[in-house]
Amino acid sequence: MTDIATKNDEVQSVDAQISEYYNRLCQRNAGEPEFHQAVLEVLESLKIVLENDPHYADYGLIQRLCEPERQLIFRVPWVDDQGEVQVNRGFRVQFNSALGPYKGGLRFHPSVNLGIIKFLGFEQIFKNSLTGLPIGGGKGGSDFDPKGKSDAEIMRFCQSFMTELHRHIGEYRDVPAGDIGVGGREIGYLFGQYRRLANQHESGTLTGKGLEWGGSLVRTEATGYGLVYFTKEMMAADGKSLNGAKVIVSGSGNVAIYAIEKAQEFGAVVIGCSDSQGWIHTPDGIDLEKLKEIKEVRRDRISAYADEVEGATYHSEGSIWDLECDVALPCATQNELDGEHAQKLVDTGCKYVAEGANMPSTAEAVEVFRKNKIAFGPGKAANAGGVATSALEMQQNASRDSWSFEYTDERLHVIMRNIFRACERTAAEYGHEGDYVIGANIAGFKKVADAMLAQGVI
Ligand code: GLU
Question: In this structure, which topology does domain 70-201 adopt according to CATH?
Answer without folding.
Answer: Rossmann fold (3.40.50)
